[in-house]
């Protein structure tokens, strides 16, 4: 699951960068250009993937922290 989260963050970052660059490059063109629309869609998709990957990492770290605490509570004290 961690590898999948890493892939989501990586692909999301690339799409966000690509989309932003495409929007900036097509800013001076006429309105019939599809570069701005395509860049906006790529940026939105990249942002969604990036946030999904980051939240997945956060959830995994919370589960790991809860697992460690539950193991510590069950351990006998000396």
Structural features, described:
The chain has 78 residues and is mainly α. The chain has one domain (2-74). The chain contains 2 helices and no strands. It is rod-shaped and about 70 Å long. The protein starts with a helix and ends with a helix.
Distance between the termini: 37 Å
Unreliable parts: none
Give the helix level as a range of percent: over 70%
SSE ordering: HH
What is the overall shape? rod-shaped
What fraction of residues sit in β-strands?
under 5%
Helix segment count? 2
What keyword list fits this structure?
82% helix, 78 residues, single chain, mainly alpha, 2 helices
Structure, briefly:
With 78 residues, the chain is mainly α. It contains two helices and no strands.
Write the layout of secondary structure elements.
Blueprint (H helix, E strand, L loop, with lengths): L1 H24 L9 H40 L4
Helix pairs in contact: 1-2
């Amino acid at each position: 699951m961690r590898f999948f989260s890493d892939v989501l963050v990586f692909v999301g970052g690339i799409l966000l960068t690509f989309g932003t660059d495409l929007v900036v490059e097509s800013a001076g063109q006429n309105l019939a250009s599809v570069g701005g629309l395509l860049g906006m869609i790529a940026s939105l998709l990249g942002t969604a993937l990036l946030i999904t990957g980051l939240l997945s990492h956060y959830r995994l770290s919370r589960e790991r922290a809860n697992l460690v605490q539950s193991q510590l509570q069950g351990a006998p004290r000396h």
